[in-house]
Amino acid sequence: MMKKKVCLLGPFGVGKTSLISRFVQNIYSEKYLSTVGVKVDKKELSLGADGEVSLIIWDLEGRDSFLSVTDSYLRGMSGYLLVADGTREESLERVRETHNLLKGLFSEVPSILVVNKSDLFSDWKVSPEDYEDFLKAGIGIIKTSAKDGTGVEESFTGIARRMLNA
Amino acid sequence: MPGDRDTAEHIDELDDQERYNLRQLEKRVRSSSSVTPEAVSEVLPKAVLLSNGKHKLLTQAMVETTEGSIELSITTDPERLSTVLFPIIGAVIRKALNRLVSDTLMRMNAGLENTLSFRRIAWHFESLRTGVPYINIVMRDTLLYRVEHVFLIHKKSGILLRSLSQPGLKVADEDMVASMLTAIRDYIKDSLALEKGEAVTSLSAGEFSIIVEEGPYAVIAVIVRGAADPELRDILQNAIESLHLRFSQELSGYSGDTDIFEATDPYLRPCLVGREKGDRKKIPVYALAFLLSVFAVLAFFVVRGGIDSARRGAFISALKREPGIVVVESRPAAGKTELHLLRDPYAKEIADVAKDYPVRLSDFVLDVEAYASLDPSFIEKRLNRLLAPPPTVSLAYRDRTLYVGGWASDDWRTTKLPLAYAVEGVDKVVLDAAPSPRSSSTVRAVPENLLSLAKELSTRSVNFEQDSSRLFSGQSRSIADLKTLISTIVTKSRAAGVEPVIEVVGHAAGTVQDTVSEQLSRDRAERIRDLLASGSPDLAASLTARGVGSSQPIVGEVTPDDKRKNRTVTFRVTFR
Q: Is the ipTM of this complex over 0.85?
C-alpha cells in the first residue's frame, strides 16, 4: 500500500484538528482542542481505480503566522491542505501568506484550500472572489464543515488523488 | 613542380565526398583550433588508460586537481560527499571508536579488578576462564534488555517503511508511532538548535527507551525494554549501513510505496536482540564448586593461621615473663617464627615453658644465647654452685652483697669463698653479719664430727602425698631415725659449745611457683618440725621450718616419680 504524508496548515482556530477528527474517526468534538506542536493521525483510503492509500496526516500547530512553523515538520510531505475559516477574513490572508511561502519550497507538492465552517455560512466573511487567485493557481477549493461533515471526505480524498497522480 | 602537378591530378580524380573529407582534414591540420573538446573527449579516456599502464606521471599531475575538487565539493555541499561515503565511513569510524571504548574499558577493568566481592570474584574467574575482558562480563550480567520493536523509517517524511516486532507483541499504530517519533526528534533538534549532522539518538520513558540510528535516507528506531547493551548500537549501525548499500535507490527515490521494503526484513530482524534472565548462562556448578573449595582451603589456612598466631603469641609472652629469659626479637619467617633469645643457664628450659602452651617447637627457629641474669635468685644459685658451701653454711644475697653465716672449714673459707667476687652482681661479701634471721651466725670452725652428722642429715628426706601434707605411709621408722640423728647433733653441738639451727625445708612438686605451692611446702615443713619436736622440748628450740614451694626441686620433673620425689622436706644445719 502507498503511504503518503499530508500536512494541514492554517492559522489558530480554523478547525484543522476538528477536520481530522471528523475524517479519521467520523466524530466532531464541540470542544475545540488546540494542537500543541504536531499531532499525527492515520487513515486508509480506497480510491477506486487509483488504488488504496494510507494517509499519514500531520496536524501542525495553528499559529497566526506560518513563519513560526518549523519546516522540519513539512519535510517529505506529499501534499498539504491549507485551512481557512470562512467566518474570519484574516484567516484567509494568513493562509495566502503561507501558500506564497510554500510555493517556492514545495512547488511540486499538490495542495487544496479548505474553507471551513460552512455550517456557519450566514456568518461568513469571505466570498468566492476572495480566493479566486487560488483557483487561478490551480489549487482546488473545498468548503467544509467539521461540525456536520460537509466536504471533509472530499478534501482528503481530493488531496490523496492529487498526491497519487503527482 | 612535378610533385605539385601530380597532386593536382590526383585531386581531380577524387569524388565530391573525398574532396570534402580532404578539406576538413586540411582545415584541422592548419587550424590551431583543430583540437576540439569533442575530439579530446574521444581520446582522453584512452590516453588516461595508456598513461596509467606506463607510468605515474598522470596520477601525480592529478593530485592537486583532485584535492581541489574534493575541497570544493565539501565547501559547497558537504552532505553530498558524506552521503556517498556513508556506507564505508561508518565502519571506519566505528572501528576507531571501538578501539577507544576498548581502551577505556581496559582501564576500567584494571580499576575494578582491585575490588572484591563474591560476585566480582565469580566474574574475575569467568574472565580468566574465557579470556573475555572483566568489564564485558560485568556489563553482560548486569544489563538485561530486549528490543521489542524495530522500525525502518523514511528519514524525510517520517513514514514507516517497515517494522518488525518480537512474537506476540504489537504496537497499536506503528505508522503514527514512527511519524510522531520523527516529529519529536525534529522538534527537539529545532528547539535545541542542533547542528546539521547532530540528531536525537535516544529517548527514554520508564523502563522503555527508543534508540535511533540514522542513515542518509532512512533511520532505524528500536523500542527497548530495560537497559540496552552498548553492543546494540553496533548492531543498529551495521543494519542501517547494510540497508543503505542494498536499498540505496529505493530509499533515495521513495515515493510512497512501502511494499518493496518487505525485502528489508533480513536486515532488520537481527536488531530484535535482547538479553533476558532466561538467557543468562546456567550456573557453572563445577566452577562454583571449585571456587567454594578454594574458599574453604583459604578460610582453613586463614583461621588456622590466626589460631597459630595467637598460640605462638601466648608462648612468646610466657617467655618474656619467665625469669632469666629475654626475648630479643621475634618475627615471622617462611611459615615459622624466628626467635632470638637470651637465656640464663639457671632459667627454665625453653621446652619446659613450651609444655604449658599448645605450640610445637618445630614451628620456631630458635636462636638462643647464654647470658648471666642479674636476678637475685639466679645470682644466689650461681653462688651456691660455684662456692659449694657445706651444709653448715648459709648464703644469702641481697643488694649486690653476699651474706655468709654458719660454720665452715678453714679450707672452704680460704679457697672457695673468695670466688664469690667472680660472680657478676656481687660487689661485697659480709661474714659474721646478720642479713637474715637464719644466717646470723659467724662462719666459724666446727668440729669435723658435727659436720659429718650435719651432712648426713642433709641427705635425709620425707615424702608426702600429692597436694597434701600427709606423709606417705611406711615412713615411721625413718621419722624415728631422723629424730635420733637430730637429737645427736643437738647434744654434740652443745657439748662443743655451738648451737645448731636445724632448718626443715618444705618442697612442692610442679613447675609453677605460686602461693598454693608455697603454702603446701610450708605446711609440709611445719608438719615434720612438729613431729620431730613432739615430746622433745630440747629439740624444739633448734628446729625451724620454711617452705620454698617448687622453686628448689630435688630433681627435674620428667616422670611422675620425679614429681613424687619433689613432694618432700629436706634438712639443713647451720651452727652459731
A: no
